Amino acid sequence: MSCASVKQCACPKTTCPNHKKCCVCVKKHRETDSLPFCLFLDNEGDKSMENYNRKREALQ
Q1: pLDDT, tens digit, for every residue of 42-58?
Q2: CA angle, 32 as apex, 27 and 35 as ends, to 5°?
Q3: b/e code 25-51 from CB counts within 10 Å (16+ = b)
Q4: What 3-state DSSP class applies to 40?
């Protein structure tokens, strides 16, 4: 599977080796049960699925 780099990346971690490599980044986060910054922008530093679910429930 090819993983082309993107030109614009929402992640502020520019020193990350996966920066601008979306499919590699998503795979890594899936393995660690967390969400990448680009999929969960309002995370206040906590990218865990627990925090995501807590914020999602608060919106409902």
Answers
A1: 778 787 888 888 888 88
A2: 70
A3: bbeebeeeebbbbeebeebeeebeeeb
A4: coil
The secondary structure of 10-27, three-state, reads CCCCCCCCCCCCHHHHHH
Here the tokens at position 13 are: 């971690």
**Three-class SS of residue 34?**
strand
Question: What pTM was computed for the model?
Answer: 0.65
What is the CB neighbour count within 10 angstroms for residue 9? 19
Query: How far apart, in whole angstroms, are the C-alpha atoms of residue 10 and residue 40?
Result: 10
